[in-house]
Design goal:
It is elongated, with a radius of gyration of 22 Å. The protein is built from 7 helices and 6 strands. The chain folds into 2 domains: 1-40, no CATH class; 41-170, no CATH class. The strands form 3 sheets. A two-stranded antiparallel sheet has the order 1-2. A two-stranded antiparallel ribbon has the order 3-4. A two-stranded antiparallel ribbon has the order 5-6. By secondary structure, it is mainly α. The chain has helices at 43-57, 59-62, 69-84, 95-113, 129-135, 141-157, 164-170; strands at 14-17, 20-23, 27-30, 33-36, 116-117, 124-125. Helix content is 46%, strand content 11%. It starts with 13 loop residues before the first strand and ends in a 15-residue tail after the last helix. The longest helix is centred in the middle third of the chain and has 19 residues, at 95-113.
Length: 185
């Protein structure tokens, strides 16, 4: 796939690398992520939908007083998180997408840890995000994504220069940048 800011740039129908020929496409799926030639991804929304479905299926377990908090965290990390993070190695996160992921994680964590009682007024209070992060000792979801991406880059770098993926990783893009300020978006 050739990525360009212009829709009709480089109208060739295929690309040749040594003895292999690759067809030009507008979009393709890699690791469950749909990549487009305009570098747009709507994967975070589509990954949060099944994550929400998993969350709602185990919601009664996460709010149960019969299970300890460590078991609830294990349920989150083994059932919900893998569904949300499938294919995260190929995501390019924006701040808005990072915020959506943090919000999703905080909703699940607030269900796990529940409200706390104010000892002075004897009222139940919802935990703040900082308190949730202090109670959840594992790395947050964005740090998990970044570490998985780094691990994936390490695998690609070890493949050797003969493999196509390594060439894409260390290669230089062709073409020139257009004059003027880059698009805002």
């Amino acid at each position: 796939m050739v990525m360009s800011r212009y829709q009709n740039a480089g109208q060739s129908h295929s690309t040749k690398i040594e003895y292999s020929s690759f067809e030009r496409v507008e979009e393709f799926k890699y690791f469950g992520t749909t990549l487009t030639n305009q570098n747009s991804m709507h994967e975070i929304k589509s990954k949060l939908k099944p994550g929400n479905a998993c969350y709602h299926m185990v919601q009664s377990l996460l709010s149960s007083s019969l299970l300890c908090k460590n078991l609830k965290i294990k349920l989150y990390r083994t059932i919900i998180l893998p569904v949300v993070l499938y294919g995260c190695e190929t995501w390019s996160l924006t701040l808005r997408e990072e915020h959506r992921l943090w919000l999703f994680e905080n909703v699940v964590l607030s269900r796990i840890f529940g409200p706390k009682m104010n000892e002075v007024t004897r009222e139940w209070l919802q935990l703040h995000n900082e308190e949730l992060n202090d109670m959840y000792t594992s790395a947050n979801v964005v740090l998990v994504i970044k570490s998985r991406r780094m691990r994936w880059v390490g695998h690609v770098a070890c493949m050797g220069e003969g493999r196509g993926m390594c060439r894409v990783l260390v290669g230089k893009p062709e073409g020139k940048r257009p004059l003027g300020r880059p698009r805002q978006g």
